[in-house]
């Protein structure tokens, strides 16, 4: 039972801090794209004018960019010109946005972290990365005061307070508050086990279960008791052990009132 409980906890934690909603990602990308566009417009205003008027520029960067885009002018529609990426076909309403997009194909990462040297294609991504070094958590939940280093994580957290469950399983009708949890739930119906043990070949539906299984082969016991130093492979096993030192007995019999350290002892009783 402790194993199952821990697995559920791992599932909730993994999805809360690993999975980002698609809407949040799109909003962030749009904000970053706008910042990048403003920067490019400030630096290369004359290049943009040359391109729109059709005049050739001798700038090397101008030649590289025009080789990877197509300008379309809809007839008498009043709509703005579109700049299309020749690599993937995606279109943009401004040349600066295309220039930012082209970094996906060129691999250009002009923004570097002064702390660790890691580089990023967008300035906004670098800003979010810097939180790793500063440990800043600027996004605070108005309900409980808990803070997060990313706005997407805060949005996921808020579901705890709203109780929203908008992701419905079409197989059994069960609903979930996160898309990632629904995707993992679907493995119950599909039988998919994407995590395979390289030692014995056993498959698992969840990464947390796979990581715990690996410890059987490695002998790793990462959870140590601060009182006596004894180590355990599972966090919940350590929690049960700690009660030996504290004397806590949270499980009581409804019939006779006798209390136990672990639930399994109550079940046997």
Automatic annotation (TrEMBL):
GO biological process: positive regulation of DNA-templated transcription
Primary location: nucleus
Biased composition (Basic and acidic residues): 1-31, 40-51
Gene3D superfamilies: Classic Zinc Finger (3.30.160.60)
Compositionally biased intervals (Polar residues): 54-73
Gene Ontology molecular functions: DNA-binding transcription factor activity, RNA polymerase II-specific; identical protein binding; RNA polymerase II transcription regulatory region sequence-specific DNA binding; zinc ion binding
Region of interest called Disordered, as start-end residue ranges on this chain: 1-73
Domain C2H2-type: 83-110, 111-138, 139-166, 167-194, 195-222, 223-250, 251-269
InterPro entries hit by this protein: Znf_C2H2_sf (IPR036236), Znf_C2H2_type (IPR013087)
Pfam family, one: zf-H2C2_2
SUPFAM superfamilies listed in its UniProt record: beta-beta-alpha zinc fingers
Recorded GO CC terms: chromosome; nucleus
SMART domains the record matches: ZnF_C2H2
Subcellular location: Nucleus
Keywords: DNA-binding, Metal-binding, Nucleus, Repeat, Transcription, Transcription regulation, Zinc, Zinc-finger
Function of the protein: May be involved in transcriptional regulation.
Family: Belongs to the krueppel C2H2-type zinc-finger protein family.
Name of the protein in its database record: C2H2-type domain-containing protein
Species, as recorded: Cyprinus carpio carpio
